[in-house]
Amino acid sequence: MQGVIEIESAAHFPDWLYAQFSAAQQTSRESLGVLQPIEFIALPDVLHSKESQQVCSQSEAAGPSTFISALQHLPGQWWIQLSTVHFKFGIFCSSPSAGRFCRQAYFFPEILKYSPIRKWFVVFKKIFVVFLTKVFLFLKKTYIIQVETEGKEEIIFMILTVDVGNTNITLGAYEGDVLQFISRLATDSSRTDDQYAIELTAVLRLHSVAPEAFESAVIGSVVPELTGTLYSAVHKLTGVPPLVVGSETETGLRVLLENPSQLGADLAAGAIGLIGKYELPAMAVDLGSATKMYVVDAEGGYHGGMIAPGVRISLDALASRCSQLPTVSLRAPSKAVCTETVEAIQSGSILGTASMIDGMIDRFSEEMGEMKTVVATGGLAKCIIPHCRRKVILDENLILDGLRIIYETCKNKD
Fold first, then answer.
1. Which residues contact 20 (CB under 8 A, 6 or more apart)?
2. CB–CB of 212/204 below 8 Å?
3. What is the mean pLDDT of residues 288-302?
């Protein structure tokens, strides 16, 4: 119920309302439509007073004019209220002497043709139409983008990319080549496909995206025991079988390793991301559970690189194996030479890793030639890269972009 006009008592009814009730009494039922009393409905407390019973009986017997007169004998405030659902008119009352209640006496379907209440319905109708229009446009923008190309309408659906790492599972949703959102879940091999499907559903709901919006999905995993679980979860949620990037996937990458099958999905996706986004030759620094650095030459060939324990793993090992050393946060100290234990550990972990990256860039350049681009990615990159002395581009979406490019490459070949 909306659109309330509140008045102090029945004696203060607006003149136009009383006139309409009088006209209603004098006009035949055929011109007004069906005019009949409605069964009285009470909200939490029911009015049991003799006065109310008198009003009910009088209104049912004599019609609206007598009903208005009878209202003057009851205490409390009276008001007029509109039903925007049924587009009908009713009278409601509240009496402090009898507790909280609300009663509806008569419906007058045709009275709206002759009263200012009609203006309210016009306003409500406009608001409702605007609301539905905005909802439609929002859903259209969220789920499907329609693009005009050469006079034809092309429908672009979304692609779900899933990067399964040892610490986090990173999700990326693309509309075309535009990344709409990123979300991260904890990697837990003990969870089932249904549990991950529930978490994925919550993530999509958080970003106002329907599972049906995804035309395709691609998974890159370095946790074999979770690959099948995530495959099943994504398939259940979106209804499409995801592409799983593996050693046999035709990524378009020239792998120049002694054993190409050993190349992990994350490294392959990162290398494809380098080729698709940056000037070559390029070097990638992936700061995750492990610290990985690798090179892609000017012709797009993957040459491998180095792997070291990750910053967080090193800190955890230090705290667990050295009884007098505490666990510390990843916050850089103000200087390299520290006089306090916690800061000394932070100096070694953060500034030491930054110096290692600078040094490995020099070594890689000596062996492979000067790097045109150095790009850092991974969950810990934003903690380390600001302390590097060499120019390093921070790109947290490098692997997700690579997975998307791999999917599009495979799709075009099919």
1. 108, 111, 114, 115
2. no
3. 96
Give the CATH architecture of domain 144-245: 2-Layer Sandwich (3.30)
Fold: same for 144-245 and 252-414 = yes
When mean pLDDT is compared across 79-88, 133-142, 359-368, the lowest value belongs to 79-88
Q: What tokens were used for 49?
A: 């007073």
- Phi first, then psi, for residue 409 (nearest 5°) are -65, -45
Decide if 45 is catalytic: no
Position 91 pLDDT exceeds 50 = no
Amino acid type, 108: F
pTM for this entry: 0.63
Structure tokens, 307: 């792997």
* Residue with the two structure tokens 């890159």: 220
Residues across the chain: 414
Beta-carbon count within 10 A of 265 CB: 25
- Cα separation values, 183 from 186, 187, 355, 390, Å: 10, 13, 30, 30
**From the DSSP assignment, how many helices (H) and strands (E) are in the chain?**
13, 16
Tokens of 109: 């379907």
CB 9 within 8 A of CB 91: no
Select which of 15, 45, 194, 266 is catalytic. 266
Domain ranges, ordered by start, for the chain: 2-127, 144-245, 252-414
Peptide bond into 281 cis (omega under 30): yes
| Residue that has been written with the tokens 């608001």 in this structure | 127
Query: In CATH, which superfamily holds the domain spanning 252-414?
Result: ATPase, nucleotide binding domain (3.30.420.40)
CA distance 332 to 319: 18
pLDDT in tens, 119-168: 566 666 667 767 776 666 665 444 444 433 344 444 457 999 999 999 99
Residue type, 331: R
Residue 61 has pLDDT above 50, yes or no: no
Backbone angles phi, psi at 168, to 5 degrees: -130, 155
Any bridge partners for residue 308, and if so which?
Answer: 291
Q: How far apart are the first and last CA of the chain?
A: 57
